[in-house]
Write a structure and sequence with these properties.
Elements: H1 6-19, H2 25-28, E1 32-38, E2 41-50, H3 53-58, E3 70-80, E4 83-84, E5 93-98, E6 104-108, E7 119-120, E8 125-132, H4 135-139, E9 146-148
Parallel strand pairs: 2-3
Antiparallel strand pairs: 1-2, 1-9, 3-8, 4-7, 5-6, 5-8
Length: 154
Protein backbone atom coordinates (compact mmCIF):
# COMPACT_ATOMS: atom_id res chain seq x y z
CA UNK A 1 0.00 0.00 0.00
CA UNK A 2 1.46 3.35 -1.05
CA UNK A 3 1.47 6.37 1.24
CA UNK A 4 2.18 8.82 -1.60
CA UNK A 5 -1.24 10.42 -1.08
CA UNK A 6 -0.10 11.61 2.38
CA UNK A 7 2.54 13.94 0.96
CA UNK A 8 0.03 16.31 -0.74
CA UNK A 9 -2.17 16.24 2.36
CA UNK A 10 0.71 17.27 4.63
CA UNK A 11 1.76 19.94 2.12
CA UNK A 12 -1.76 21.39 2.17
CA UNK A 13 -1.87 21.36 5.96
CA UNK A 14 1.51 23.12 6.03
CA UNK A 15 0.21 25.83 3.70
CA UNK A 16 -2.83 26.38 5.91
CA UNK A 17 -0.56 26.71 8.96
CA UNK A 18 1.88 29.05 7.20
CA UNK A 19 -0.94 31.20 5.83
CA UNK A 20 -2.00 31.90 9.37
CA UNK A 21 -5.56 30.76 8.99
CA UNK A 22 -6.68 31.18 12.57
CA UNK A 23 -8.53 28.56 14.50
CA UNK A 24 -10.72 30.03 17.25
CA UNK A 25 -8.98 30.11 20.64
CA UNK A 26 -11.48 27.63 22.07
CA UNK A 27 -10.48 25.06 19.49
CA UNK A 28 -6.74 25.44 20.08
CA UNK A 29 -6.48 24.22 23.66
CA UNK A 30 -8.49 23.76 26.82
CA UNK A 31 -9.35 26.92 28.68
CA UNK A 32 -8.33 27.33 32.31
CA UNK A 33 -9.39 29.86 34.93
CA UNK A 34 -7.04 32.63 36.06
CA UNK A 35 -7.94 35.34 38.57
CA UNK A 36 -6.23 38.68 39.14
CA UNK A 37 -6.78 40.15 42.61
CA UNK A 38 -6.50 43.94 42.44
CA UNK A 39 -7.39 45.62 45.72
CA UNK A 40 -10.83 44.31 46.64
CA UNK A 41 -11.64 43.37 43.03
CA UNK A 42 -11.28 39.93 41.47
CA UNK A 43 -11.00 39.74 37.68
CA UNK A 44 -11.55 36.29 36.17
CA UNK A 45 -10.19 35.28 32.77
CA UNK A 46 -10.52 32.11 30.73
CA UNK A 47 -7.04 31.42 29.42
CA UNK A 48 -5.00 29.13 27.23
CA UNK A 49 -1.74 28.03 28.86
CA UNK A 50 1.37 27.69 26.70
CA UNK A 51 3.54 25.05 28.39
CA UNK A 52 5.83 23.78 25.63
CA UNK A 53 8.51 25.54 23.60
CA UNK A 54 6.40 25.10 20.46
CA UNK A 55 3.29 26.58 22.10
CA UNK A 56 5.25 29.50 23.55
CA UNK A 57 6.87 30.21 20.17
CA UNK A 58 3.47 30.38 18.42
CA UNK A 59 1.50 32.20 21.12
CA UNK A 60 -1.14 34.50 19.66
CA UNK A 61 0.54 34.82 16.26
CA UNK A 62 -1.85 35.16 13.34
CA UNK A 63 -4.97 35.51 15.50
CA UNK A 64 -7.28 38.33 14.52
CA UNK A 65 -9.52 38.48 17.61
CA UNK A 66 -9.78 37.45 21.23
CA UNK A 67 -12.78 37.81 23.56
CA UNK A 68 -12.49 40.40 26.34
CA UNK A 69 -12.48 37.77 29.12
CA UNK A 70 -9.82 35.61 27.43
CA UNK A 71 -6.07 35.56 27.59
CA UNK A 72 -2.97 33.48 27.09
CA UNK A 73 -0.57 32.54 29.88
CA UNK A 74 3.02 31.60 29.04
CA UNK A 75 4.46 29.18 31.61
CA UNK A 76 8.28 29.27 31.51
CA UNK A 77 8.61 26.48 34.14
CA UNK A 78 11.40 28.42 35.86
CA UNK A 79 12.02 31.99 36.92
CA UNK A 80 13.99 33.90 34.29
CA UNK A 81 14.24 37.28 32.55
CA UNK A 82 12.02 37.24 29.45
CA UNK A 83 11.36 39.48 26.48
CA UNK A 84 8.52 39.24 23.96
CA UNK A 85 7.99 40.64 20.51
CA UNK A 86 4.87 41.04 18.39
CA UNK A 87 6.10 39.69 15.05
CA UNK A 88 3.13 38.06 13.25
CA UNK A 89 0.79 39.12 16.09
CA UNK A 90 -2.08 41.22 14.79
CA UNK A 91 -3.73 42.02 18.13
CA UNK A 92 -2.54 44.90 20.31
CA UNK A 93 -1.97 43.36 23.73
CA UNK A 94 -1.25 44.13 27.36
CA UNK A 95 1.56 41.87 28.56
CA UNK A 96 1.43 41.16 32.29
CA UNK A 97 4.74 39.82 33.65
CA UNK A 98 4.27 37.65 36.77
CA UNK A 99 6.83 36.35 39.29
CA UNK A 100 6.91 32.92 40.94
CA UNK A 101 4.73 34.09 43.86
CA UNK A 102 2.02 35.27 41.48
CA UNK A 103 2.82 38.96 41.92
CA UNK A 104 2.63 41.21 38.87
CA UNK A 105 6.15 42.54 38.24
CA UNK A 106 5.30 44.90 35.38
CA UNK A 107 2.78 45.50 32.62
CA UNK A 108 3.56 46.49 29.04
CA UNK A 109 0.35 48.16 27.91
CA UNK A 110 -0.93 48.40 24.35
CA UNK A 111 1.99 46.66 22.63
CA UNK A 112 2.45 47.41 18.95
CA UNK A 113 1.14 44.71 16.59
CA UNK A 114 3.59 43.21 14.07
CA UNK A 115 6.59 44.84 15.79
CA UNK A 116 9.98 43.18 16.28
CA UNK A 117 10.82 45.52 19.19
CA UNK A 118 11.50 43.59 22.40
CA UNK A 119 9.11 43.95 25.33
CA UNK A 120 11.04 42.84 28.46
CA UNK A 121 10.21 41.93 32.03
CA UNK A 122 11.71 44.30 34.62
CA UNK A 123 12.88 41.33 36.71
CA UNK A 124 12.93 37.55 36.33
CA UNK A 125 9.41 36.08 36.04
CA UNK A 126 7.72 32.68 35.86
CA UNK A 127 4.92 33.63 33.49
CA UNK A 128 3.44 36.24 31.19
CA UNK A 129 -0.27 36.80 30.69
CA UNK A 130 -1.37 38.37 27.41
CA UNK A 131 -4.78 40.05 27.31
CA UNK A 132 -6.38 42.49 24.89
CA UNK A 133 -4.83 45.97 24.92
CA UNK A 134 -6.50 48.31 27.39
CA UNK A 135 -7.86 45.61 29.72
CA UNK A 136 -5.25 46.31 32.41
CA UNK A 137 -6.06 50.01 32.56
CA UNK A 138 -9.82 49.43 32.28
CA UNK A 139 -9.81 46.99 35.23
CA UNK A 140 -7.23 48.91 37.28
CA UNK A 141 -4.70 46.05 37.21
CA UNK A 142 -1.24 47.18 38.28
CA UNK A 143 2.19 45.92 39.39
CA UNK A 144 1.98 44.36 42.86
CA UNK A 145 -1.45 42.83 42.21
CA UNK A 146 -1.76 39.06 42.73
CA UNK A 147 -2.47 36.43 40.07
CA UNK A 148 -4.13 33.15 41.06
CA UNK A 149 -3.42 30.14 38.86
CA UNK A 150 -1.94 26.70 39.47
CA UNK A 151 1.47 27.53 37.94
CA UNK A 152 2.09 29.99 40.78
CA UNK A 153 1.52 27.35 43.48
CA UNK A 154 4.63 25.27 42.82
Amino acid sequence: MSSSWLRPLFALLGLVFMAGIAVPADAQSELERLTIVSGSNRHVFQIEVMRTDEQRARGLMFRREMAADRGMLFDFKQVQPVSFWMKNTYLPLDMIFIDQKGEIANIAENTEPLSERGVPSVRPVLGVLEVNAGISRKLGIKPGDRVEHTIFKR
